Amino acid sequence: VLLLQAVLVFAWQPRLSYGLEWGYTGTFLRTYQYNYNYSAGSRINEKDAVWWYYSNGSVLANIGADVSSTLNLSVYSGLLGVYSRRWMIPVELRARWCPSGNDSSGLITHAGVAATFPTSVLQQTSFRALAGGGYRAHVYKHISVDFILSVNLTTDHDRIKDPDTGAYVSQTQITSNNSQYWGINLSAAINF
To answer: How many CB atoms within 10 Å of residue 120?
Structure first.
């Protein structure tokens, strides 16, 4: 039995894949929770949900493996816009499932989770999750183009301004600083 399992493990050779993805994200909801001491010495506990619309883009590259004829696991990274002057570098693990097969045209679904690293002054790692579906157009052999619509949630840590002075609140004065951005993403990807 062990010999049979070893043969199966060594016989399984997943096909490597790689690709590029370009996307447009429309962020429609921002929620936040702040708790901090400000210049007057008082503590402020602030939370809110703001419905607004903000456009952003993304450019991602991926490398992965077809772990079965219908499932691909890939690692994505690149540049991701979250909101005004806020860009992040995600390192994302994404699963793509193609019911008609990885090398066939048809429906595609995906889900992913990522650690995101800001490119600006706040260097706190955040979290991102997304799920969606779309259509895969098989072009030639192992080349395909995906058109994907997904919902995503990106967490972040904002720079908080003191309500009296307008200066940024020092990290030592902040107890809690969390914000969440909900968006719809429309993207096109080419896979090899």
So the answer is: 10
